[in-house]
Here is the input.
Amino acid sequence: MFGIFGLNLIDAYLTLDYIRRGGTEANPFMDALLRASHHYFLYEKCIVVAICLLVLVVHRTFPLARFGLWGLLVVYGLLFFYHVYLQVMVRTAI
Here is the structure.
């Protein structure tokens, strides 16, 4: 659970860094939040993920909830490597 939330925070930080360097947010809802305020973006990411994690952890004895937790860990892990790739591509383009 903490690993997923930690990767979520890393995703938020790297997204903001990527936007600052001229990148764009692919998710239209998150893009609208970013345009309104970086704080709204961060609050939404933290609150929504925390609530989802709480629901999954409370129901962790169910196979579908365990699958959801592991699935989120894999997705956020892959997203982390995508951000690393973007960071390398942006830095080499400068």
